Amino acid sequence: MTYHKVILKPKKEDSLLRFHPWIFSGAIQSITGEPEEGDLVEVYGANNRFLAIGHYQIGSIAVRVLSFQPITIDLDFWKERIATAYHLRKILRLAENDNNNTYRLIHGEGDNLPGLIIDVYAHTAVMQAHSVGMHHARHIIAEALVAVLGPQLKNIYYKSEATLPYKANLGSEDGYLYGGDIEDVAMENGLKFYVDWLKGQKTGFFVDQRENRSLLEYYAKDRSVLNMFCYTGGFSFYAMRGGAQLVHSVDSSAKAISLTNKNVSLNFPEDPRHAAYAEDAFKYLEKMGHNYDLIILDPPAFAKHKNVLRNALQGYRKLNAIAFEKIKPGGILFTFSCSQVVSKENFRLAVFSAAAQSGRSVRILHQLTQPADHPVNIYHPEGEYLKGLVLYVE
Fold first, then answer.
1. Which CATH number is correct for 4-67, 3.40.30.10, 2.30.130.10, 3.40.50.20, 3.30.1340.30?
2. What is the pLDDT of residues 244-282, one digit of tens each?
3. Rounded to two decimals, what is the model's pTM?
4. d(CA 296, CA 233)
5. Residues annotated as catalytic (active site), given as ranges
6. Cα–Cα dist 281/233, whole Å
């Protein structure tokens, strides 16, 4: 098959020789023909040297690389990449595990498939495209998924309306690519939860906090727990299994609170230790007393673009300052940022500034990141997006 060619400017091929999977528009000298957004293109450097093949797109990232070898991107390619990713999840004891049927199967650049996310919930795979190229490939990807996962896979739900570039005018609609059964209960580390992949955030559940929820369970015994920005209550039901004295879940979304209550009841029916409140986080924190000795702050991304980074850091500082002020002596604070544009250093500085403002003695117990089924490509450090600290507050 013949592809359009992208020719790089002199001395702009170094990042590709280091296997970085993005090519920026400023590095391009010329393009043969007029590729449509989402088309496959081959990338060449000096002396007509082949460098990569990937999806072309409009914007600062002009090409997302699928391979650094001159190969054909066909069904066998997709099957090989998905099989490689699935093998890793089996090594991690996440796939084919009687105690766990929830995990991320494809994590974009971390699995050498930039622009593609696939999460598995029991017998359903939820696919999310972040690029036009992956959107165009969705049907062949679904075919490859069925081939690799076999009869255990009963549904593939495509959920990309909110993640595709809006300027591409694709008119994409979410829906089933395979199957169609609404199987809404999944299991993580022996705990059950309802998944709303039809209308929920991301693919329906925040799979990336699994190991951090387990760590919270370890610390929860006999503590009064506040799960702020609780979404569907993941940290809450782990805290309850860990023996928490009481657990309060707070989110501004009434729908999230409803799902949290359903999830807690699924695991701990009629347990009086739990209560949930649909309320603004900052208002709740401001008015609450010194009632909690374990607080989780897991807000949505405060910054999705660098031009709002300063405001985001002020938000993290303000949020953590209130928690430091209100948490009981001997309390433990789990605090997170999932903003990719907020560096580990910037996040820590915001939290450290908040600690200093409170005047409390604070020690770091753990430094957290995303789990192993959200791998970071060593050549693409930008893939490390989740930052977290577990702090002991005297």
1. 2.30.130.10
2. 999 999 999 999 899 999 999 999 999 999 999 999 988
3. 0.93
4. 11
5. 338
6. 15
